[in-house]
Amino acid sequence: MPGKYDISVFFDEPFLVIDFLPEQVPPESHGQFPDIEQFYLEPERYAEIRERFAHILLKLNCYSDFIVFYDSDETGIRNEDPQTLFRKIIENTRNINILILPENSLVSLHRDDLCMTVFNPETKLLNQIRALAGSYGLFVWKP
Fold first, then answer.
1. Which of 7, 22, 24, 33 is least enclosed, having the fewest CB within 10 Å?
2. What is residue 15's three-state secondary structure?
3. 71-74 own/partner pairs: CB under 8 Å, 24+ apart
4. Are strands 75-78 and 3-4 parallel, antiparallel or unpaired?
């Protein structure tokens, strides 16, 4: 059943990121981060990263209820059909915010991002996210 929620309150909460890099690249880095970021934003490689995100989220949905919000919708969809959610993550046409209940955490996946943001994760959820991200060659870290 749909519900109306104000997910904007989460954006001031502590957060972590799920990323293809093990830590944040410092601004004074001598590496090629901008070029490498563009390399991973190319459609084929970007679709692979989005697919990893989709698998992580679907597996998390095995343990907790999800309320999925697309773009700036205030009304979410409880436990979106797995095929639909997977497809929408891969299509990358909308920003996706997922309220995870009862943990009261939020996962945010914005268009054109190479990372997902996790707001207000409790220890159990964070451990699940770390295990799933690691199994897909991704990293969880705090900026």
1. 22
2. strand
3. 71/95, 74/4, 74/5, 74/6
4. antiparallel
SS3 47: helix
Please tell me the distance from the alpha carbon of residue 49 to that of residue 19, in angstroms, as a whole number. 9
**Greatest Cα-to-Cα distance within the chain, rounded to the nearest angstrom:** 50
Q: How far is CA 126 from the centre of its chain?
A: 13
Mean pLDDT, rounded, for 126-142: 98
Q: Kindly tell me the sign of the dihedral angle through the C-alpha atoms of 75, 72, 81, 17.
A: negative
Q: How long a stretch of residues is the chain?
A: 143
How far apart CA 46 and CA 110 sit, in angstroms, is 13
DSSP string, 13-80: S-EEEEESSSSPPPTT--S-HHHHHHHHHSHHHHHHHHHHHHHHHHHHTTTSEEEEEETT-SEEEET-
Considering the chain, what percentage of its residues have pLDDT values greater than 70? 97
Structure pTM? 0.92
